[in-house]
Amino acid sequence: MSKTLIIGASGQIGKLTTQLLLNDQQHVVALVRDKNKLSELNSPYLTVLEQDLEGDFNQAFTDCDKVIFVAGSGGNTGADKTLLIDLWAAVKAVDYAKQHTIKHFIMVSSIGANDPDAIESDIKPYLVAKHMADEHLINSGLNYTIVRPGTLTNDSASLKITTQRPSDRKEAKISRGNVANALLQVAKNAPSENQIFELFDMN
């Protein structure tokens, strides 16, 4: 039985992705810090695990064959949480995945993570964390897909997306719903080769 571990399932994209996989009758292990944040989700395909990503969450990987890492420290936290969640928890997740022989690791990264020095902004620590986490996954030997969304919005899911970065930087955005739907497709159709791609709304 195929089972997907979603790390950060109570976040905005994480919750949307969890619901989409459940709607598709896929077995999901939702890893969250507070299970009450998923209280509205009710499905025979869902197992909720309550663990802190700053601790040991190795056991969450048991009997899973796919992982979606969509956890994030959030925009209102400091560099300390960015380091502990976006980098260190992601690195630990990759290492745990290797121990459990995970078949496909899907990492939600960010536009700009390929070259944090190219963007001068106050989110540079976040981009550095994402860059290092991505590099750890790339060098892990796992089968992986790294998704790098543009600026996230709360617009409704249009289901029209592109991997081509818009020439106008202001258009380099994507709804969280579209990201979640893309993650569903990646989880359902594991690519034969490792992939890294950016993701944007199609205008």
TrEMBL record:
Annotated InterPro entries: NAD(P)-bd_dom, NAD(P)-bd_dom_sf
PANTHER family attached to this UniProt entry: FLAVIN REDUCTASE-RELATED, UPF0659 PROTEIN YMR090W
Biological classification of the source: Bacteria, Pseudomonadati, Pseudomonadota, Gammaproteobacteria, Alteromonadales
CDD domains: SDR_a5
Domain (NAD(P)-binding): residue spans on this chain: 8-189
Gene3D superfamilies in alphabetical order: NAD(P)-binding Rossmann-like Domain (3.40.50.720)
Protein name: SDR family oxidoreductase
